[in-house]
Amino acid sequence: MTNQEIKKQYIQTAFEITGQEGEKSVSIRRLAKEIGCNSAILYRCFQDMDELFLYVGFKFLKDYLHDVASLLDQSYDSIELYFKTWECFIEHSFQNPTIFNGLFFGKYPAKIDYISKDYYSMFPEEVVQFNDELKPIFVSGTLAGRNYMMLQRCVAEKIIDDKDTALLSNLIVQMYKGYLKDFLDRRKIFDNPQDREDMKNELLGSYRTIVNRFLAGNF
After folding, report:
1. Does the record carry Translocase as a key word (predicted)?
2. How far is CA 49 from CA 16, 29, 39, 55, 109, in A?
3. What would the pLDDT profile of 37-89 be if each residue is shown by its tens digit?
4. 101 FRET partner, CA 20 to 30 A, in 108, 135, 138, 179?
5. For domain 3-45, is the CATH number 2.160.20?
């Protein structure tokens, strides 16, 4: 097998173990046994296990990408589509908060764009549903990059002023980061579908309030 084929096997196997048993069940020795190779081969494909889990994190976006693609077929204007895509993203991230936190706010932030491009070069079928205009948004490695490009669609429709997009994008992402951390902390104590729904709605309500103030020119 080529290095890329082995790399794909590592990602797929780690993803399956994580999904079934949790991230702590993934080890270098177990991966090597499952794949049928020497443990040292992992380091020919990844810098370390942390880097492997970033690739695995993109695999966990597959269901989100499927759901968000269906939203793009609806007749929403750009600002409503912006809120709908965030709602979809929050729902999926609260189902796998540790994975999403590690992917977007974890180790190797400087490498995440490269890892995203590398991942989708190996699994192009996971973004085939997006056209050339939308694909850059959903293959961007950083959440800030995705969010900024979605806001630029609102700028193109003259819903938001271009001078406000950088500030607004940063506010939205930082608010999400805080909510995700809070959700992770609370999840240690209790976690149920209603708790997820309440936090999601609270965050989305805050988003609408902030964005509407920008629309009204109050900032």
Report:
1. no
2. 15, 12, 12, 10, 15
3. 888 899 999 999 999 999 999 999 999 999 999 998 888 899 999 999 999 99
4. 135
5. no
